[in-house]
């Protein structure tokens, strides 16, 4: 299916929240909790990171950037922010780190396509740049479309450039096309990072120190025990995050789980990032039931390792 079409504009991401971590120990505290190396994060860069349970299951995923030496901003879905903030706070103990909800202070806007191109000239993927009263966070392209967040301080929304309105559904479809999974409320505690290709998109650093679930994540990596991966699919129906996927003829046991999904912006149906058992990836996969809507696999923007026995 071709995705070569003009798409883009600007939209407010009211569903994104922001956690602020500040204080002399903010870097060392986050370093001990997240899957990625944030201690080395410079002021001009952003990074993916996950927050896992002791069993190595993702409780949340973030885009993290560092506006000051002793301050970090972590963006995640807003409906996960309160429980995630509460859980992170439990681990602060004596560390000189203050965690707070900055969602009412910072508005996150999405910008894509032609509206983003002029603004992003010279800004590489995962770079962060100040732009007046806004901060530009360059994200990976999706479907051949340039993308970024514009993070505006409260009262500075007028500094977001005027452009055609883009629907939140279109932005979510671009998120799916990027191949980068976001942990949602429906998928909390469902995935070890490798199941959603998190280490393939730069969300895990295997050289950093310990964090909750680190032993499980490392064992999955070095012992080759990853038996599930995430792939991109189209469907005539619109999938929902958390929905089960079945291999045709196997009605009793799900073969996978929808991680993220969105309706297609130009035609009926939708696209989804689906975590699937590698042993079932060559089977006919159906949404919701063994006789549900057919899922058609498409290429991700990066390579996913497959055992020779299941590669296609």
Keywords:
alpha+beta, Gyrase A, domain 2, Elongation Factor Tu (Ef-tu), domain 3, 6-stranded antiparallel β-barrel, 5-stranded antiparallel beta sheet, globular
Instruction: Count every helix, treating DSSP H or I runs of 4 or more residues as helices.
Output: 5
Percentage of β-strand residues:
25-35%
Gap between N and C termini: 18 Å
Extended strand count: 16
Using the CA coordinates, give the radius of gyration: 19 Å
Order of helices and strands: EEHEEEHEEHEEEHHEEEEEE
How many strands, what sense, and barrel or not for the largest sheet? 6 strands, antiparallel, barrel
Helix content: 10-25%
CATH superfamily of the largest domain: Probable tRNA modification gtpase trme, domain 1
């Amino acid at each position: 299916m071709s995705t070569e079409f003009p798409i883009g504009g600007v939209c407010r991401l009211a569903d994104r929240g922001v956690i602020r971590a500040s204080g002399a120990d903010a870097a060392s505290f986050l370093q001990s909790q997240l899957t990625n190396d944030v201690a080395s994060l410079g002021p001009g860069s952003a990074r993916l990171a996950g927050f896992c349970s002791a069993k190595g299951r993702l409780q949340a995923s973030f885009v993290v950037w560092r506006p000051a030496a002793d301050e970090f901003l972590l963006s995640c879905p807003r409906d996960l922010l309160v429980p995630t903030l509460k859980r992170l706070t439990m681990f602060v103990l004596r560390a000189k780190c203050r965690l707070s909800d900055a969602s009412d202070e910072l508005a996150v806007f999405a910008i894509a396509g032609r509206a983003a191109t002029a603004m992003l000239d010279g800004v590489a993927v995962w770079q962060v740049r100040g732009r007046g009263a806004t901060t530009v966070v360059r994200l990976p392209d999706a479907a051949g479309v340039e993308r970024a967040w514009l993070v505006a301080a409260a009262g500075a929304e007028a500094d977001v450039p005027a452009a055609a309105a883009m629907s939140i559904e279109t932005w979510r479809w671009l998120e799916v096309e990027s191949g980068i999974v976001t942990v949602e409320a429906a998928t909390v505690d469902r995935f070890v990072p490798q199941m959603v290709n998190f280490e393939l998109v730069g969300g895990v650093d295997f050289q950093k120190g310990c964090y909750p679930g680190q032993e499980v994540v490392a064992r999955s990596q070095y012992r080759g025990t990853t038996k599930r991966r995430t792939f991109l699919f189209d469907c005539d129906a619109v999938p929902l995050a958390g929905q089960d996927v079945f291999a045709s003829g196997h009605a009793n046991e799900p073969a996978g789980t929808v991680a993220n999904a969105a309706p297609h912006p130009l035609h009926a149906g939708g696209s989804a990032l689906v975590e699937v058992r590698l042993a079932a990836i060559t089977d006919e996969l159906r949404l919701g039931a063994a006789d549900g809507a057919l899922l058609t696999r498409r290429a991700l923007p990066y390579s996913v390792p497959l055992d020779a026995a299941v590669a296609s």
